[in-house]
Amino acid sequence: MKSRALFLDRDGTLVHPRRYPSRPQDLRLYDGIGPGLRTLQEAGFRLVIITNQAGIARGYFTEADLQRMHEYLAEELSQLGVRLDAVYYCPHHPQGVIPELAVRCDCRKPQPGMLLRAATELDLDLSSSWFVGDILDDIEAGNRAGCRTILVDLGTEQLPEQQIRFPHFVAQDTPHALRIIVECEFVERESLGDSHWIHPTRHVACEQLGPPPDLLYRPPTWQSVTLAEPAHPTTYPSDLKCSGVPCGRQERAAHPTTYPSDLKCSGVPCGRQAGQERNA
Ligand SMILES: [Mg+2]
Ligand SMILES: [Zn+2]
């Protein structure tokens, strides 16, 4: 059976943001992420970092430097009882100074290449996976791969103009994002009768993470916007247009431009439209 993944951007999502960090000690994990990461890992999520590292193409540091940084990061996470399953990085940038890396690639976010590669190599089910990142390029990559997406609001991102850049949820910080995932998974799994999530320890784990999270948080400048609603319809209207965002509801290759009226919802919000439209 394929695994689910929790894909995490690195800089600004897992560790404090910093311009082109190049030494291990430059990577400082956010406080408060241990319990959420442990809970999700125990529930079967593979933890995979997906990071653009244009500093390599720009000649600021080498792949060997990056390797050392990620060994350090894995060690820091293990201190929290968290096992890092994999790190995927894009070393490219079109304006790089290292000729072979100064290319337009399909792995640099917002392209979904790293997620697609991870899915193949680690046997992951993208449609039941999550991507957490602090910029809209992360969100677009996650949406393009068919994952559910959460934007961690660092105050940098304006309201997106394209549907594909809308996150399913916005979180105030990374612990909040992890809490949202636990909440969604717990409620969904429980309603599907998944005994793994009904086990009493799950309730305990959920409670240990604090009160239920705010699922409707928005950056202050986005206030008027409705994103994916926690309440999700069970069928789709027949004239619903597809935005082109694969949702994992059906195979990507067979992604239609409209949905049949009898299409059942899997219960996974797909972000295809703002909540109000979805319920129209
Ligand atoms: Mg980032
Ligand atoms: Zn790349």
Describe the 3D structure.
- This protein has helices at residues 34-42, 54-57, 63-79, 113-122, 136-145, 174-191, 195-198, 200-208, 275-278, and strands at 4-8, 45-52, 86-90, 130-133, 148-152, 169-171.
- The radius of gyration is 19 Å and the shape is globular.
- A six-stranded parallel β-sheet has the order 3-2-1-4-5-6, sandwiched between helices.
- The protein folds into two domains: 4-220, 3-Layer(aba) Sandwich (Rossmann fold); 228-280, no CATH class.
- The two termini are 36 Å apart.
- It is 30% helix and 11% strand.
- α1 (34-42) runs parallel beside α6 (174-191).
- It has 280 residues and is of the alpha/beta class.
- Bound molecules: magnesium ion (MG) and zinc ion.
Fold blueprint:
Blueprint: E1 4-8, H1 34-42, E2 45-52, H2 54-57, H3 63-79, E3 86-90, H4 113-122, E4 130-133, H5 136-145, E5 148-152, E6 169-171, H6 174-191, H7 195-198, H8 200-208, H9 275-278
Helix pairs in contact: 1-6
Concise synopsis of the structure shown:
With 280 residues, this protein is of the alpha/beta class. It has helices at 34-42, 54-57, 63-79, 113-122, 136-145, 174-191, 195-198, 200-208, 275-278; strands spanning 4-8, 45-52, 86-90, 130-133, 148-152, 169-171. The structure holds magnesium ion (MG) and zinc ion.
Largest beta sheet: strand ordering: 3-2-1-4-5-6
Bound small-molecule species:
magnesium ion, zinc ion
Mean pLDDT equals: 81
CATH topology of the largest domain: Rossmann fold
The CATH architecture of the largest domain can be given as 3-Layer(aba) Sandwich
Beta strand count: 6
What is the overall number of helices?
Answer: 9
Task: Please name the fourth-level CATH homologous superfamily of the largest domain.
Answer: HAD superfamily/HAD-like
How many domains make up the 3D coordinates? 2
Task: Using the CA coordinates, give the radius of gyration.
Answer: 19 Å
Query: Can you tell me the residue ranges where pLDDT is under 50 for at least 5 consecutive residues?
Result: 228-280
Helix content: 25-40%
Distance between the termini: 36 Å
* Element-by-element helix/strand order: EHEHHEHEHEEHHHH
**Overall form:** globular
Main CATH class of the largest domain: Alpha Beta
Tell me the strand percentage band.
Answer: 5-15%
